[in-house]
Design brief:
The chain folds into 2 domains: 29-137, Phosphorylase Kinase, domain 1, CATH 3.30.200; 143-360, Transferase(Phosphotransferase) domain 1 (Transferase(Phosphotransferase), domain 1). Helix content is 30%, strand content 16%. The protein contains 11 helices and 13 strands. The strands form 4 sheets. A 7-stranded mixed sheet has the order 1-8-9-5-4-3-2. Strands 6-7 form a two-stranded antiparallel sheet. A two-stranded antiparallel ribbon has the order 10-13. The chain is globular and about 60 Å long. It binds adenosine-5'-triphosphate. Residues 37, 66-67, 69-72, 74, 87, 89, 120, 136-139, 141-142, 187-188, 190, 204-205, 207 line the site of adenosine-5'-triphosphate. The site of adenosine-5'-triphosphate has 23 residues, from β3, β5 and β9. Residues 1-26 are annotated as: Disordered. Residues 60-331 form the Protein kinase domain.
């Protein structure tokens, strides 16, 4: 494995090759096809940042686009030196006339956190004349996409509980490095696709991280107002109010993530305006009844214990990570982290739980 390095080279010559291997993806027979990354249609009018069959930096042959965020594009490529598939994240160096700093920060944090189990392995990173890039471990489709592949559009309690449990470990590691993530959501979580890491959750996208602790571990002093950072659907009420984010806000986003995975949708799914979303989040937090149906938001949901603890957290101190994980035991039951997850079992458990809930609400 190449050790991560920051490269300083200009764009390299492109080479045409037609072979399209999916070598390491094919070798791991236990991974169901549905979670393997899929090529997205490339729209030539949208000026993709890399071209199919282009050999990036003389080494990585681009096979297709597998992800697109608000900032970057993620490509599947084969490493012509090692014969392995990798993911390449690229973003234009200049955005709206300014030097884009997101990926530089992401490269730095990823490099620092290498070796931690819930962080993607970094193979190389740097920049070309026009792009910043990161070459990293290829992962599954994201958990939001996995949920949508479930016939009932939900994940089971035990799978959701284990996703939340592993993400708490991932956030604990990140917070210990002094960073908060600020964009915890299903689209930023994937699983490994190798024999040994197919049950390991990987937290992605460090583009919005912020250093919230000083080198000595003390909290940095809080700004009285902070710009909005994150995704409206998943940020905490505090973030809607433009308050400085803390490690507890990552955990609140994780609660909303768990709710969406297990219940199938968030109550504010169809709302777009931040103030309207904030109002429903406040109602959920105050355990008010949902408008028009005399039921509160956590009715029938064993997320209630976890939610109560999450909503009681003090943003001036780090969350009690193990206590939070204890509250997930009721969801996880006797399942081990290495037992099959919903997608390895045709979503049977999720469908059964969904049928029981449907029958009990009739
Ligand atoms: N290493 C990887 N392997 C497989 N798929 C990946 C990988 N990295 C990212 N993806 C896919 O690409 C999507 C977008 O990635 P990412 O969130 O890093 O981009 P972004 O431009 O920073 O997005 P955002 O606008 O949410 O900040 C992810 O949701 C995931 O599905």
């Amino acid at each position: 494995m190449d050790s991560p390095k920051i490269e300083d080279e200009t764009a390299q010559q492109q080479q045409q090759q037609n072979t399209k291997t999916c070598s390491n993806m094919e070798k791991v027979s236990k991974i169901p096809d549905l979670v393997l990354p899929r090529m997205k249609k490339m729209d030539p009018d949208a000026s993709p940042l890399l071209g199919i069959d282009e050999v990036f930096k003389k080494r990585w042959q681009i096979q297709g686009l597998i992800g697109k965020g608000g900032y970057g594009e993620i490509y599947l490529a084969s490493d012509t030196k090692r014969g392995e598939e990798v993911a390449i994240k690229v973003e234009p160096k200049i955005r709206r006339g300014k030097l884009a700093k997101r990926m530089i920060l992401e490269q730095k944090a990823l490099m620092k956190m290498q070796g931690k189990p819930h962080v993607p392995r970094l193979y190389a990173s740097g920049y070309t004349e026009n792009l910043n890039f990161i070459i990293m471990q290829l992962l599954s489709i994201n958990i939001g996409e996995i949920r949508k592949s479930s016939p009932c559009r939900k994940l089971s309690k035990s799978t959701t509980g284990r996703i939340l449990h592993q993400t708490i470990d991932a956030l604990h590691d990140m917070h210990q490095f002094g960073y908060i993530h600020r964009d915890v959501k299903p689209a930023n979580m994937c699983f490994g696709i190798g024999e040994t890491n197919r049950h390991t959750l990987i937290l992605l996208d460090f583009g919005l991280i912020r250093r919230y602790k000083k080198e000595n571990g003390e909290f940095r002093s809080l700004r009285s107002k902070a710009g909005f950072r994150g995704t409206h659907r998943y940020v905490s009420v505090r973030v809607h109010s433009k308050l400085e984010q803390s490690s507890t806000d990552d955990i609140i986003s994780l609660l909303y993530t768990g709710y969406e995975l297990m219940i199938g949708e968030l109550p504010w799914k169809s709302l777009e305006r931040g103030d309207e979303i904030k109002k429903l989040k406040q109602a959920m937090q105050n355990n008010e009844e949902k408008v028009g149906n005399n039921k509160n938001y956590f009715e029938n949901s064993q997320l209630i214990g976890f939610a109560k603890l999450v909503f009681s957290l003090d943003p001036t101190i780090d969350p009690p990570y193990s206590k939070l994980q204890d509250e997930l035991k009721i969801l996880i039951g006797n399942k081990k982290m290495d037992d099959p997850y919903d997608w390895e079992d045709d979503f049977k458990e999720a469908i059964e739980e969904n049928d029981i809930n449907d029958n009990s609400s009739k």
